[in-house]
Amino acid sequence: MQNASDLDPIVQQKHALRSKVRKDLKAMIPEQRSEQDIAIQNIVLEAPWFKSSTRLCAYISCDALREVDTSKILSAVLSDPNTECQTKKKLYVPWVEDKNSHMRMFNISSLEDLIANSMNILEPTPVDAHGNQREDVMQASDPVDLILLPGLAFDRSGQRLGRGGGYYDLFLKKYQELAADQKWKQPLLVALAYSLQIMVEGVISVTSNDMPVDALVSPDGVIRISPAAFERM
User: Fold this and answer.
1) Burial class of residue 116 (count of CB atoms within 10 Å of its CB; 0-12, 13-18, 19+)
2) DSSP state, 195?
3) What is the C-alpha to C-alpha distance for residues 176 and 141, in angstroms, rounded to an integer?
């Protein structure tokens, strides 16, 4: 564990990099973003590791945050299993529980299960239209094999810079501990990134709480990083 005094420069470096990447994302012209969104989603949808996945967590992209679009991926997952995805998949999407970095992943079966929260980000309702509690991935009897992640910046060693809330880092740590306790295979952590979000190694400062990813998908293709990625992708 790092001392508080050691964290100060890391916090400053993260803040500076976040500001730079946000500025760069804002400067992307809509046509460029759209082209990269389509390319990234097509790479995911056509990938054997995605087609063979049966249970996954995926984020719901927010245009205002300039996240890589996931609408095509989500639609494919929730569509007829005989179409794009080939295998019927079980999908879990994020629900922010509080402001203390607690996030849950609930199962949905339709995009109609989503409503806009106070930040105008689409989320599942914890209770479905029939009054039943949605299945939380942490209580599911079977493991997820894939988690699709957002982020502000990434490097080629798998380091991820989030938006500062710590929601994904905490969720991933808890899920990996659950998988280890249950003796499940760990899910592949795959981040979706525009070209400008991928940095050279060493640019992203990290702490012991920051969770790395196994692979990146950019418009140029898949960047495999971890041994798990090379084995399964």
Assistant:
1) exposed
2) G
3) 15
Tell me the pTM.
0.92
Q: What is the 3-state secondary structure (H, E, C) of 58-109?
A: ECCCCHHHCCCCCHHHHHHHHCCCCCCCCCCCEEEEEEECCCCCCEEEEEEC
- pLDDT value, residue 85: 47
Average pLDDT over residues 204-224: 95
Answer yes or no: are the C-beta atoms of 85 and 73 closer than 8 Å.
no
Specify whether the CB–CB gap between 113 and 122 falls below 8 A.
no
Distance CA 97, CA 105 (A): 10
- Tens digits of residue pLDDT in 168-203: 999 999 999 999 999 999 999 999 999 999 999 889
The span from the first CA to the last CA of the chain, in angstroms, equals 32
Averaged pLDDT for residues 100-105: 87
Cα 71 from Cα 136, distance rounded (Å): 22
* Tokens 């502000």 belong to residue: 152
